[in-house]
Amino acid sequence: MNTDNLQIQIKTFFGLEPILAEEIKKLGGKNVEIKNRAVNCEGDLGFLYKINYSARTALKIMVPLMTFKAWDEDRFYDKLVKFEWDEYLDIDQTFAIDATVYSERFKHSQYMSLKMKDAIVDYYKAKYNSRPDVDAKNPQIKFHLHIDRELVTISLDSSGDALYKRGYRQDHGDAPINEVLASGMLQLSGWDGKGNFLDPMCGSGTLLIEAAMIAMDLPAQIFRKEFSFQNWKNYDHALFTEIKEARVNKLKDFTGKIVGYDINPEMIAATEINIRNAEMEDVIEVRQQDFFESKKELFPLHIVFNPPYDERLEISDTDFYQKIGDTFKHKYPNTLAWFISADLDALKKVGLRPSRKIKLFNGKLECRFLQYEMYEGTKRTHKFEDKKEEES
After folding, report:
1. Is the C-alpha dihedral spanning 343, 346, 350, 351 positive or negative?
2. Where are the alpha helices (DSSP H) in 264-340?
3. Looking at residue 4, what is its pLDDT?
4. Which value, to the nearest 10 degrees, does the dihedral of the CA atoms of residues 33, 39, 41, 47 take?
5. How far is CA 65 from CA 43, 143, 148, 154, 196, in A?
6. Exposed/middle/buried for 42, CB within 10 Å: 0-12, 13-18, 19+?
7. Which of the chain's termini has less CB crowding within 10 Å, N or C?
8. Can you give the residue ranges of the THUMP domain (predicted)?
9. Residues with pLDDT less than 70, the chain
10. Is the pTM of this model over 0.85?
11. Structure letter (DSSP) for residue 92
């Protein structure tokens, strides 16, 4: 493996590709290219460590090892059994294979994963008369198989567990939002840690913690114990330690407030556990509060939240979304607010016209991430006053 110029593929969620691309550019990625649910780039081994440790909207970071075309299982096996697997996998290490298949020729990802495993095992048996073991739960080395029609790509997974597993979330609540999606929503909303932040339906607190991490420029994986690249033959412990120390030294002071409300005391308790795990008791404040009975207390204020919708949670109150709009209008003047929902019919009941709509997915649910701008008085009056200020 040429560690000076690695070809790197970074997986993300639909709709977050531009955010991830900007993150990768800021971290020093070269030849950054946006793909569907992924970003491709180039960088050295240190850069690979850095993006695993720091990138907030990355799900998996992989290094492609080989690409070829296969029209049947025999060619697929023949190409794999001749590959020099011992460059990447020691005989006494465990391995696993993730597979994604989009093909009429090869229809079952699990079956193709087994065929790849057979080829790897046969390679070692022929060369060493022994074989590495498979460990599906906690492998030391992880490979990824991707088949798109006849095109086969084998990659080395540098991350291991998906990067949304930050390490701070213990209590998930009934309908948690994924950490990567949460961070992507915050960045799409323009949250940069300046001012104050409110999540008025905070659930288990993921948006609050991700907002605090952005505000302090805390690395996304600061709580993570292990990455798959630490089991690679070329792992450079001193380099990774240096990268982590340099990254932590860039932390920012945060002078604003990050506040969460939830009407459910059990959710407040869950949030407090996760906040303690993230060591952010001094940064984040949570309290039991009905958003619909609240009013704006922080100035300036940035709101992002994940209200109940669709299959995630049942809402007994048919006027729930109307109450969101009414609370915005009457209690939160001069505020920028964003929320995500899969209930497109209920969104019509908000009674406000969103200034932006972004298509995202929460799991398999197609959602809209919407921006609402609340002004004191009418929007026209607000713009007129802004124009007068500019002219003066």
Report:
1. positive
2. 265-277, 320-331
3. 83
4. 150
5. 15, 10, 16, 6, 45
6. middle
7. C
8. 47-158
9. 171-175, 310-318, 377-392
10. yes
11. T
